[in-house]
Amino acid sequence: MSLSAISKRYARALIELGAEQDKLEQYAGELDRILEVFAAEKNLQSVLASPSVSSAKRSAILSDLAGKLQLSPSIRNFLGLLLEKQRLRFLPQIAEHFRKFADELSGTLRAQLTSAVQLDAAQTAVIRSGLEQQTGRKVILDTRVDPALIGGLKAEIGGRIFDGSLSTQLKRIEDKLTKG
Q1: Contact at 8 Å (CB) between 165 and 151?
Q2: pTM for the complete prediction?
Q3: C-alpha distances in angstroms, 165 versus 19, 115, 125, 134, 162?
């Protein structure tokens, strides 16, 4: 079975549980916290995946981590299942699929907005509102700054890219001039 199929299967199961308990956002936040810890502590994942560490010890470590992160019983059980089935290494992909499925259920789109300079809250709100009107769905913006854009904005939403950056416009002009 492929990595994608495995991670989608576990993500769907967690989505069903979260929807049933009306805790999709809570679960998404808890998954994000776990992934932050795993990203910061590379050795932790190695220990949890190591066959040389007893399963009881790995369970105890995971239980301690869940306690420190104040995870819900459902997420604790979910992590325990992943640990037992040796699927904990798939957690980043499971979390990614979980977020996509949760967004589909809630009718939310995620957009990545890149600008040449930091945008203030009012500018971000205007852009979000425009994207929501265009798509007819709620939009969550992930804003980033890339000085290489020189000016303007670049937005990626639902697999579509809207590029109004000055660097792209200059490149188009250059292409026209070189082609004649």
Answers
A1: yes
A2: 0.75
A3: 39, 8, 19, 19, 9
CB of 138 closer than 8 Å to CB of 107: yes
- pLDDT less than 70: residues of the chain: 1, 180
- Which pLDDT value is given to residue 1? 61
